[in-house]
Amino acid sequence: MALRRKESNESSLPSGASTAPEAVGEAGAADVFKRIHSRPHVALLIILGGIIALVLGIGVSVTFGARDIRFEDVWLAVFQYNSNLTDHQVIQELRLPRVLGCVLVGSSFAVAGAILQGMMRNPLADSGLLGLNSGAGFALAICFAFFPGMSYSSLVLVCFIGAALSALFVFALGSIAKGGLTPVRLVLAGAALSALLTALSEGVALYFRIGQDLAFWYAGGVAGTRWIHLKVMSPWIIVAIAGAIVISRSITLLSLGDDVAKGLGLRSGFTKFMGTVIVIVLAGSAVSAVGAVSFVGLLVPHFARKLVGVDYRWIIPTSAVLGAVLVVLADLAARTVRPGFETPIGALIALIGVPFFLYLANKERREL
């Protein structure tokens, strides 16, 4: 598999170019991007169509629920808010922050998955599968047990730390085996760490009797999202997504292989460091708000690559829009599939994500 990938990476270079650092400069990088398979016009159409679908999804999601509210009342609640009307209170205090939280969380998980898959050239990479989500969740369990009065802004920082430590441990655990770090070993290390941290979180919940507090994060859902959550996490997420777009060109070069990236003058170590920081910020922010919603970062970047090609300058913004649409629609389904009972969105997305993950894992095994 490594040999085939290396040959594939080198075939992406312009004819006559060498992978030696002195052979290819900025001009060579520009030539490489011209030869990379991408569909910018398709990407623009998908982004535009996704934004339209997202606006419509937000409108429908805000309108429908346990209490049906007319669209006219939704419009008035947004632009002419009257605190004396119950419908206006439901829209402003419950449904709007919830659906906007879906947008932020979906974009965060999708962009984090796209960066991980591009940096590591690993189609199985995802913040949930690599243990970042469970690391942030375990940090939450510790905070609920020992620091119950901690503010939400402090919880976000703690989630960052938990996700960062999990990432370091997964990379270290996957690298100690003979043969070094491979995509399959990385996923196996992440799965092992996720299982361990989930078990420890449940143990802490049982011992300190905080199971009710953690149940929301175990299942994954946006029902508890409020304006304070959006106020704290939205600056982190917006800055992180903007940073992901800034380094998207470098991510594309990394996806061609370390040798090719270095030959084109890329500082691979710095790019990987920045990408990892961005992923930790995105995963930590999202988990602190809605819990462990896995598979968004696995599914969405794959579909984005199929649609727009392999240039991450288009994959990342496309993933951000499609991820937001996916989580908004999943939340709408969670509230309407069984009236009177709210299905966790993590469970609904997993119904699609698990078969897709098994398909990818089997494909990787055949290529070994």
What's the quick description here?
Residues 1-22 are annotated as: Disordered. By secondary structure, the protein is mainly α. The protein has helices spanning 2-11, 26-35, 40-63, 71-79, 86-120, 132-146, 152-175, 183-208, 211-219, 227-246, 248-255, 258-263, 268-290, 296-308, 312-336, 345-367.
Please give a handful of descriptors for the protein shown:
single chain; 368 residues; globular; disordered N terminus; Iron complex transport system permease protein; ABC_transptr_permease_BtuC; transport; cell membrane
Radius of gyration: 21 Å
What would you say the CATH architecture is? Orthogonal Bundle
Cα shape = globular
Fraction of residues in helix: over 70%
| Largest beta-sheet characterization | none
- Approximately how much beta-strand content do the residues carry? under 5%
Compute the average pLDDT: 83
Span of the ends, CA to CA: 5 Å
Task: Classify the secondary structure makeup into a structural class.
Answer: mainly alpha
Oligomer: single chain
CATH class: Mainly Alpha
CATH topology (fold) name: ABC transporter involved in vitamin B12 uptake, BtuC
The stretches of 5 or more residues where confidence is low (pLDDT under 50) are 1-24
CATH superfamily, by name, is ABC transporter involved in vitamin B12 uptake, BtuC
Count of folded domains:
1
Tally of strands: 0
Task: Spell the H/E element sequence.
Answer: HHHHHHHHHHHHHHHH
Helix run count: 16
